[in-house]
């Protein structure tokens, strides 16, 4: 997707657009095949280089948007009714009104609202943090007067977020940050509930920008907050309606790509409102990486291969948050786990956690499973693949599709056999087979699901960032990019504790004084590592 | 290098309770006071006793190559990182004066007393504490690097005997001693003990492979050639150099300020000393660069997580011989120490509950599979209560009253404040010392509570600190010295720096061979792809590991 009339902001070049696509592709594996034109595939690795100059292991992955894609893959139960190709008329041409007579929206089919409502209710079950935030803030309405323009994936989970923002007093206008990810029935349910939503699945590029424009450009309504995912909305406002920024109190940005764009703007001195980077909050990072991958590695491998883990020899490349999660899960099931690392600190952690640190070629002949989670490229090369034993499973939990050199397997002497969805057997002339999962793309997105609980963490973080920016006293935030304040980060965590029936201890006055802390936090300095 | 300066500073270990005041004018009374305290001490219990009256000179010259702190790197070790330190804007947040309070001295009869310097002050203890805890509590709180001396003098240690020569009541300052080479440029208790000491050092060398590796590479480059290092640390088999606690720095500031004109940098290891440096820096009085090695990632992980993960089991076993399987344990606090304790106990089959005040750590506990409770919800049912909060009065008399018979209570966290032991000193309760470090406190109805180490740090009183952990610290210090000494003019200003990430990584890499761990190297192509240097640093400064 490129910007219609190319007029890149300083530092916001085409490469950033591609980075966002890659980021999306990480989250939406099916899109990697859909949106990436084949000719672009070749540039892929090179494009990437531009973007990995910023942090590689943290902030790299943001799963909050991937539920919709999981819900469209072949394992999902809820994949059917959004695929209604009943209607070839563009939503832009249609005249639709909701039951209250409003036409202030544009969705595929308003009649799907009831289905969508059911989806939203299901999501609410696992997003109790947002629900309790609604209850707690019902009285004071911390977002009263806020006019939020949003551009995110439109899924049942974001719907819960949007309706929470409304319940807290905000007015919302919403568009989709991705042309494929919208759940049409959820968009319809939002429209029925009175949210001005402009999104449908399968938008054209022109539709995409039209939807964003409709959100921003409305007579008698001017946004004062932006919630963005990818930076497209922010970019559009900068380009088309710079005056809007006079009233904007802040931008909340969720994606790595969007955050990077904001930092570039800030560096160029062109950021004229405060912005909050919610991607790097502690709670969100832990859930996106460590906790999520700890579960999805087992799930992904089981669903695709039905492998038993006990006694299997597994090599995990990379011992960052994702690697730590994978190793913990595999060890718990009795697998024998080896680690490869390039960073001596992480390597030492692996040693102390009881894993053998090896180089890949030392164990490649003997292992049953190879898992990559390095964020790097060509970690598993053709040479490694040649030396693997028969029926070795190879998969990627890390970054895009660069870690395994899959291209090198597209040679005439090798036979590819698709044995089931997401599972390929690559067969050597001597009959040896390597089991390649998801063609080297992210296993946890292709072959597993992202739990709603993880998305709840993200959505709650976004809601609190909006509240913080909107209510901050004049001067607390300047024209810069901020991390979510520690206290808010802690609040996100505390809102999720009830789902574990967890009982947090409170400091006594005496203890708080002794520690020099406020009883309500923040409890740690910013550099604390958790 | 002035021996007088060094030894005087060492003898002048000021009571930590007074460290908060750094103004030179106040130093004199402190020094006087502590000198008295040192003089009043019983004979030192063990060779490494940091409070031993033996003035701490630089390590006596010893025969053989590789002696002394100087380490150097051969060209083969071309990976020695050169990187700028991250300047920490956030001053050191945990001044842990009471780390020392938590260190117990074990006298020859096996009884434990607080280090003499804090004895008199015991009563003011808790109140004074408040001055120092206006900063966060869970990191930087513990530094075990000085505790080996205690461990090696406690009753469990095998190596506690031979330095305990109370043969001589003469102050070392009044003695004339010479080493075998005829030098008198030292002042120690008894030069004749050198051979025993050498054996201790050799044992330690076995477990400090990283430093030995550094030495091996010392043939060529000699990165500290020309460096004149004055040090003030615990003089144990493992240490040799630097300032630990800030007393030496303080002394030089006070007595020989001109010396700072020639000083290239200060390397400080303790929480206390780091805090003093930050105060100096804040007051604009720091006139040389200083490096805070306490907060390096590798050191922090080993001091807290890894060390406590082992010592909790060790400490409980040695004192109580209990079995862990199926026992219900409540761990108060889920910071690095709490995480370590919980992991170890879970692995032994215990049922572990956690209490927390910080919702983020609480959520981590939940996700790690521990029930998060308030202490009073489980206090009646648990078999063991372990505190590691850094807080005070986490376990109160009320909790103790409600515990079940033979419940074990111990502290892994901070000094002796976490369990309100003072509240147990009431007439209706009977104290029974059943073995070293183990008290039974008996209620009128016959209920017994098993209190370990009188509420002081279990891992220091009843377990040992592995030399491997100390090796991490020592290597970190050596590399910090090398970095400061070799840094080009202007890289470090008059401020307090963290060890550069690259050096931190180098410390870790020097310890990998112990595990026969084979680090993968980036290819040129991969390094370019990641935008990294092949030799590190590999992570941004904010990375949490």
From TrEMBL, chain A:
GO annotations of cellular component type: cytosol; mitochondria-associated endoplasmic reticulum membrane contact site
Biological process annotations from GO: angiotensin-activated signaling pathway; apoptotic process; epithelial fluid transport; mitochondrion-endoplasmic reticulum membrane tethering; one-carbon metabolic process; positive regulation of sodium ion transport; protein export from nucleus; regulation of monoatomic anion transport
Span list, region Disordered: 53-103
Annotated residues for binding of substrate: 155, 229, 254, 284, 288
Transmembrane stretches, start-end: none
Domain S-adenosyl-L-homocysteine hydrolase NAD binding span(s) in chain numbering: 289-450
Residues reported to bind NAD(+): 320-325, 341, 444
Bias-annotated ranges (Low complexity): 64-83
InterPro entries xrefs: Adenosylhomocyst_ase-like_sf, Adenosylhomocysteinase-like, Ado_hCys_hydrolase_NAD-bd, NAD(P)-bd_dom_sf, S-Ado-L-homoCys_hydrolase_CS
Keyword Zinc among record annotations: no
UniProt-listed SUPFAM superfamilies: Formate/glycerate dehydrogenase catalytic domain-like, NAD(P)-binding Rossmann-fold domains
Cofactor(s) demanded: NAD(+)
Keywords, in A-Z order: NAD, One-carbon metabolism
Domain of life: Eukaryota
GO molecular function: enzyme regulator activity; identical protein binding
Cofactor remark: Binds 1 NAD(+) per subunit.
Family label: Belongs to the adenosylhomocysteinase family.
Name the record gives this protein: Adenosylhomocysteinase like 1
Taxonomic source organism: Cavia porcellus
Automatic annotation (TrEMBL), chain B:
Keywords assigned: NAD, One-carbon metabolism
Stretches with biased composition (Basic residues): 135-144
Region (Disordered): 1-184
GO cellular component terms listed in the entry, alphabetical order: cytosol; neuron projection
The protein's name in its UniProt record: Adenosylhomocysteinase like 2
Residues annotated as transmembrane: none
Low complexity bias locations: 1-17, 68-78, 145-164
Domain of life: Eukaryota
Biological source species: Cavia porcellus
Annotated family: Belongs to the adenosylhomocysteinase family.
NCBIfam families according to UniProt: PRK05476.2-3 (NF004005)
InterPro entries on file: Adenosylhomocyst_ase-like_sf (IPR042172), Adenosylhomocysteinase-like (IPR000043), Ado_hCys_hydrolase_NAD-bd (IPR015878), NAD(P)-bd_dom_sf (IPR036291), S-Ado-L-homoCys_hydrolase_CS (IPR020082)
Cofactor: NAD(+)
A GO BP annotation: S-adenosylmethionine cycle
One Pfam short name: AdoHcyase_NAD
Statement: the UniProt record of this protein carries the keyword NAD: yes
S-adenosyl-L-homocysteine hydrolase NAD binding domain residues: 304-465
